[in-house]
Design goal:
362 residues, alpha/beta, 6-stranded parallel sheet, 19% strand, globular
Length: 362
């Protein structure tokens, strides 16, 4: 079985880029050298960044009509792959909300699309609510390189004796952003005060930030207490490498993952790979998270999404303010000794799941 993966550059810092990179490597491992083609845009000098997997997948050239096209891109682009008349087309559906856009549902139901892979039960349910044919759907989760995340040293200049809550997401749209960082800031400043031995250490992924975006301006809009009153907060709005992300996690004690909607929530999975407990809602956590064993669950309620035209008639699952404060205090009471138990799915396992579905199409 041969596969052609179509999507963004595997070096792209977005979620699609991370998924394309991980899924390509997983399929390459499961199907073998010379059986996976990576059909993506590549930046100048990509050869210096590529490992053996990427090099092989770039230069492998299977016959289009003998390969399955795996599209790691939004559904409106899937018909382009289908127009080449490959052996089959699989679309990877990623969306955050209680439903998916109508056009996307129509793309999923296109007779030329053999399967639709989704990373979680959240997306599966959203697709079903939107009328996607259930027999096309397969849950193929995002994987984690658990060996990579096993042991890292904290950043020396960021280490602290205080209980450290971590945040690792984007916040490009400020108070309208799906990540809900403003809600975290408000709840954190109500749960704790300057004298409490806690701090918030946040990394804001700048990949989606528009020109002129300012962390200071966005925080001013939230309306937090003065710096002399609120608990310690350190916010890093700069790019981080995979190695730096791992060291960032190693610097903290608890990860906050209470976004308003998620397709998977990779930071939560990465934190669990490092045995770091998490604070999540039942719609911001990956399917495998076990409240109580892995951290604290926050209740949520539906509100209209604020993500622009694509999210019309879509709702998000907004974390409850008072319950988030309660979770912060419960986590503080548990202290630094709480260790999560659940292991996230490994990319090797995901690769075997995906390869099995490809072989079923023969």
């Amino acid at each position: 079985m041969k596969a052609i993966v179509i999507g963004p550059s595997p070096f792209d810092p977005t979620g699609y880029g991370a998924h394309c990179r991980g899924l390509t490597a997983a399929l390459w491992s499961a199907l073998g050298k010379g059986n996976v083609k990576l059909d993506v845009p590549l930046p100048d000098g990509w050869e210096k960044l590529a490992d053996d997997c990427i090099m092989d997948c770039v230069f492998t050239n299977p016959k289009v009509r003998e390969a399955v096209h795996v599209c790691v891109q939004p559904p409106p682009l899937w018909p382009i792959a289908a127009s080449f008349r490959p052996k089959a087309v699989i679309g990877c559906l990623v969306f955050e909300g209680d439903r998916i856009p109508k056009q996307w549902a129509d793309n999923c139901n296109d007779s030329r699309i053999a399967q639709v892979w989704v990373p979680s039960k959240h997306v599966y349910d959203a697709a079903i609510r939107s009328g996607v044919e259930e027999d096309k759907l397969r849950i193929i989760p995002h994987g984690v390189d658990d060996a990579f995340f096993k042991s890292w040293e904290a950043f020396p200049d960021l280490k602290s004796d205080k209980l450290t809550f971590l945040w690792n997401k984007g916040w490009a749209q400020g108070k309208n952003d799906r990540s809900g960082f403003d809600l975290v800031l408000k709840a954190f400043c109500e749960a704790f005060r300057r004298e409490d031995p806690v701090r918030l250490l946040a990394h804001i992924n700048p990949a989606y930030n528009p020109p002129g975006w300012s962390i200071a301006a966005e925080i001013d809009k939230v309306g937090l207490p003065g710096k002399d009153v609120r608990p310690e907060m350190t916010i890093i709005p700069a790019p981080m490498s995979k190695e730096e992300i791992a060291r960032f996690y190693a610097t903290g004690d608890i990860l906050i993952g209470t976004s308003k909607a998620e397709a998977f929530n990779l930071p939560v999975a990465e934190a669990l790979a490092m045995r770091i407990p998490v604070i999540v809602t039942d719609h911001s956590a990956p399917d495998f998270v076990k409240p109580g064993k892995d951290g604290w669950l926050v209740s949520n309620h539906l509100e209209p999404a604020t993500g622009g035209a694509l999210f019309e008639e879509i709702n998000w699952f907004v974390p409850d303010h008072d319950d988030l404060i309660r979770a912060f205090k419960d986590a503080f009471a548990a202290g630094k000794g709480f260790i999560s138990e659940t292991k996230p799915p490994k990319w090797a396992e995901v690769g075997e799941m995906a390869a099995k579905e490809l072989r079923n199409l023969q």
